[in-house]
Amino acid sequence: MNMKQAYEAGSRAFREKLAREAPADEALLRQMRESDTIVVRGTYDFAEDVLTAMAIPFVLVEGSHLARTTLRPEQAVLVNCPGEMDRGGLDTLRAFVEAGGYLVTTDWALKHVLEPAFPGTVRYNGRPTTDDVVRVEIVDRGAEMLRDIVDTRDDPQWWLEGSSYPIQILDPAKVEVLIRSKEMEQKYGDAPIAVRFAWGKGQVFHIVSHYYLQRTETRTQRQKGNAQEYLAQKGIVDAQAAAQGLETGEVETAYTSTGFLGKILVQRRQNQA
User: Fold this and answer.
1) Residues 107, 111: Cα–Cα separation, whole Å
2) Extents of the domains making up the chain
3) Which residues have a Cβ under 8 Å from the Cβ of 46 and sit 6 or more positions away?
4) DSSP conformational letter for 247
5) CB of 40 within 8 A of CB of 61?
6) What is the C-alpha radius of gyration for the chain, rounded to an integer number of angstroms?
7) Beta bridge partners of 102
8) pTM of the complete model
9) What digits encode the pLDDT tens for the residues 31-52?
């Protein structure tokens, strides 16, 4: 299983379909500069690899340097798992979001960043996952965000790292669920896979597991099918060559993951404009 190749194919497919279905959004991504996106280096996640596959420039910083980093509210900050940083870094992130910034975090950053910096919104439910793959459903605002990317024929899966942290919502009136999983709820107590909430003038997004999913699982004959045929059904032509030799489930997972992150960055640019 080659998830690096899957992300290259999924990223190309995302950009190609976005250019056709929402050309103004794709233009916003093409206009992005390196300073528009800050990635906080992690140990277990690699958002920088996804952004590279998507041809989106970024600046990579250490979590220990965040307190000394000047952040602007028009930026997006992506914090890789585990998200460990000192109090100064947490205060910098909270002030950044309050001023209008977009913060995107993954997995253990739920406990290390969101709980201390944005109390009363979400928390780790104390039931770590196993190394697992669950079927996900895109709901509510998530469906609105991904309407150009995911259609009714898709069956996206989400890889859970061993010891991923399920999300418990503390304030349902404030926190929106974007992606959920009934399997996740049955196995680990809470259904949210991706959530969003407003804080001050800004937005916070969090996902269970990682931006860069290191594997997927093909459960059905459809998911074991040829990825190039899957892309052809979506009318995606140019990205098919990058999907040679891959299964539908691999590319579908990478395509959903990159599409979700890409649409967050598009929304950031739209709000900035």
Assistant:
1) 8
2) 3-272
3) 80, 210, 211, 212
4) B
5) yes
6) 17
7) 76, 203
8) 0.91
9) 999 999 999 998 888 889 889 9
